Amino acid sequence: MSFPKNLRYTKEHEWVRLEDGHTATIGITEYAQSELGDIVYVEVETVGKTLEAGAVFGTVEAVKTVSDLFLPVSGTIAELNPELSNAPDLVNSDPYGKGWMIKLTVTDPSHINELLTADAYASLVG
Asked: Could you tell me which of 16, 30, 12 has the C-alpha nearest to residue 67?
């Protein structure tokens, strides 16, 4: 499995990439999508809302289960990946690229540094 070094990770299996100093792209890890199986639906009804780190920002539905999605850092959800409505399987095929889930305007970008590095996340999932 791959865990790109330019990302930060959570123990709940989300990843974060800071784009321009205050906008973060967020998705779930390759490990998470492999554990869930075939993704059939991604639901995010929190676009435009400001949420705290750890809050549930949506759900991902796989063939056999539904899982909550947790916000890695505080901020305002700016956008849901529009491609996921027609192709939720992008989360399976390209979790760190086209399968991203949301863009977030981060309240305090320094909090991203408190998340797990790629090496720490790889140790967590074994």
From this structure: 12
Q: pLDDT tens across 14-24, in order?
A: 999 999 889 99
- Spans of all domains in the chain: 8-116
What is the residue whose two structure tokens read 């850092």? 73
- Residue 33's Cβ-side half-sphere holds a number of Cα atoms within 13 Å equal to 25
Smallest CA-to-CA distance from 114 within 47, 1, 16 is with 16
Task: List residues bridging with 104 in a β-sheet.
Answer: 24, 77
Class of CATH domain 8-116: mainly beta
Q: Can you tell me the distance from the alpha carbon of 99 to that of 120, in angstroms, rounded to the nearest whole number?
A: 23
- Give the 3-state secondary structure of residue 66: strand
Q: Which H or E run includes 71?
A: none
Q: How many CA atoms lie within 13 A of 70 on its CB side?
A: 11
Q: Using an 8 Å Cβ cutoff, are 23 and 104 in contact?
A: yes
Q: Would the pTM of this model clear 0.90, i.e. be above it?
A: yes
Tell me what the mean pLDDT of segment 34-53 comes to: 97
Nearest to 26 by CA among 37, 2, 40, 42: 42
